Amino acid sequence: MTDSVRRLDDAAATERFGAALAGQVRIGDVITLAGPLGAGKTSIARGLLSALGLAGEAPSPTFAIVQPYAPPETRMPVLHVDLYRIDDAGELEELGLEESLTDSVLLIEWPERAAGHWPEALALSLEILPDGARGLTATVPPAWKARWHQI
Questions:
Q1: 19: Cβ–Cβ under 8 A, 6 or more apart, which residues?
Q2: Which residues pair with 66 in a beta bridge?
Q3: How far is 38 from 128, CA to CA, in rounded Å?
Q4: Could you give the 3-state DSSP secondary structure of residue 26?
Q5: What is the per-residue pLDDT across 16-68, written as a single tens digit (0 to 9) for each?
Q6: Which of 11, 98, 113, 148 could join 83 via S-S bond, C-beta 3.0 to 4.6 A?
Q7: What does the UniProt entry say about where the protein is found (predicted)?
Q8: Alpha carbon distance 18, 13 (integer Å)
């Protein structure tokens, strides 16, 4: 796995990055989104979902934990997952996420709540820079190597 670092100047750039990601995503992909509150995790997810055809704004799945999207709402099935309220990684089994990998894309916010659970995920980590921009660090697994350079 290799790391890649990018600067996202504002919220619009963060959503555009998510939209670019949508052009490369495939069924079975897991994308994890880590970073502090307000760093842009949901903005990346919204950009991706919008580019996959979602009309309107995607809500943060903080309270629902799993927000599903499926055709015709989106071009492919996506589960937008927020693990912020998960206290024990054992609770993941109840969510049925592993079974969803055969027919969906998983977007997972707060993956550190289940550390090590998705070792082959495209792991995106956001930080808020002193000037208000976002720093994006991506840990790119082998399955994403060729696709990553097109984003």
A1: 47, 48, 50, 51
A2: 81
A3: 8
A4: coil
A5: 999 999 999 999 999 999 999 989 999 999 999 999 999 988 877 777 788 99
A6: 113
A7: Cytoplasm
A8: 9
Where do the domains of the chain lie? 2-148
Element (H, E) at 79: strand 78-82
Measured distance CA(75)–CA(71) in Å, rounded: 6
**The pTM of the whole model exceeds 0.85:** yes
**Of 124, 126, 120, nearest in space to 141 by CA:** 120
Q: Which residues contact 78 (CB under 8 A, 6 or more apart)?
A: 48, 49, 52, 68, 69, 70, 104, 105, 106, 107
Topology of the domain comprising 2-148: Rossmann fold (3.40.50)
Q: Are 14 and 34 in contact (CB under 8 A)?
A: no
